Amino acid sequence: MIEFILNNRLIQTDNLASTTLLDFIRYDENLRGTKIGCREGDCGACTILIGGMQNGKLDYMSATSCLTPLPNVNGKHVVTVEGLNLTDRLNQAQQAMVDCSGTQCGFCTPGFINSMCGYALTTVEPSLESAVSAIDGNICRCTGYKSIERASAILTEKLLEKDHSQPLDWLINNNFIPSYFSKIEERLAVLKSDYTSNEGVPIGGGTDLYVQKHDELHDMNLNYLFDKKHLNGITFEGKRCVIKSEVTVSDLITNSILLEAIPNWYNYLKLVSSTPIRNIGTIAGNLANASPIGDFTIILLAMKATITLTNKANENRKLPLKDFYLGYKTLDKSNDEIISEISFELPSTNSQFNFEKVCKRQYLDIASVNTACTIETNGENITDADFSIGGVGPIPKYLEKTSAFLIHKKMEPSSILQAEQILQTELAPISDARGTSDYKRLLARQLFFSHFITLFPETIKMEDLI
């Protein structure tokens, strides 16, 4: 039995655990405000809010219900657009959209409203930039985005008065959310907080598996791992960061130690998918997907990450991430192993990290080519180098020869130009929907140069490399 609160009602269901939250909301509960769009987490029409207890307080996040397995909301509060309606007026997000003509056909509007209300529930320091960021997973095809941005600006201005000592009461009293929200925390306290599934195919956030195998999942035995305490958490052992397998991109993008240790960490991770996907997409899932252009795979390869694989007998096996990929979608992993832990060294005082990505859209898109690097220097010399690149071969590529060549070289244009020639020998791109082979080789070259121009602007100039 799966139980959770849907808007203001307790739900107890023995539906197939492989059912998506979207299908349950629309077809079992007849709440048709949550729309079916792409079913791949791209359009945001099915965006809902999920509230759960975190560190002793109730936290909400936006999520794409089309990729959320029903057990992943067990013991939580699920909010659809119907659950945000006030009894006698529009809520503040709805009113702002009306006032700014932010809706036309209306298909995408419920997702936008949910994301905007989720922002109202979670923001501590309101700003237009963060308000627009909160709706980065919602796509509109009718109005363009300026009217929606204006609505976000109105919402932000009102939220500047938010009382953070009693945030829920303030939001209720100022018509952002309905009054029943005040009782949700005590109602969640009596629900069972964990869902135990049978052993089967392991699934975390569902953002990969439900895209690849949506029709097959209903006949598969699944082992639901999302939000399990023993698989969650970020710890630091000296300069080494250790993350459990169910840590999400949002967990990493908000971690204060990582934000301080890695300049531009927030901006790098903003290039990874969208807010609703980052909220539920797990790092281990990104690695196990084995996509040649998985963003976090490329980031962690350049950090010389190590993964821990754990089998059903609870036996652990460690290996460098760069040795995990044997061929296209082929992993050094047995069927009964899962990625249980990922670890990497934080940059030292003499090292710097950079991530570059080119895709057809700046955000919410799969890369044509993505690349990352960690470079350590000692004065004018490179003392260590680690480069990775995606989209140019059958596997996410750690550039072994290029990295080795640069060690002990002087930080100067001639060294970089020679390294780029070696880089080209390590690539094997093919022409596909994201670009021709020649285009990808050109991107690889330009992004490789960009690492140095970005990290060492006083030493390396663009005109010296072209």
UniProtKB/TrEMBL annotation:
The keyword Transport does not apply. CDD domains: fer2 (cd00207). Coiled coil: none annotated. Keywords: FAD, Flavoprotein, Iron, Metal-binding, Oxidoreductase. SUPFAM superfamilies: 2Fe-2S ferredoxin-like, CO dehydrogenase flavoprotein C-terminal domain-like, CO dehydrogenase ISP C-domain like, FAD-binding/transporter-associated domain-like. GO terms for molecular function: 2 iron, 2 sulfur cluster binding; FAD binding; iron ion binding; oxidoreductase activity. It comes from the Bacteria. Residues 1-84 form the 2Fe-2S ferredoxin-type domain. Residues 163-349 form the FAD-binding PCMH-type domain. The keyword NADP does not apply. Pfam families: CO_deh_flav_C, FAD_binding_5, Fer2, Fer2_2. This is 2Fe-2S iron-sulfur cluster binding domain-containing protein.
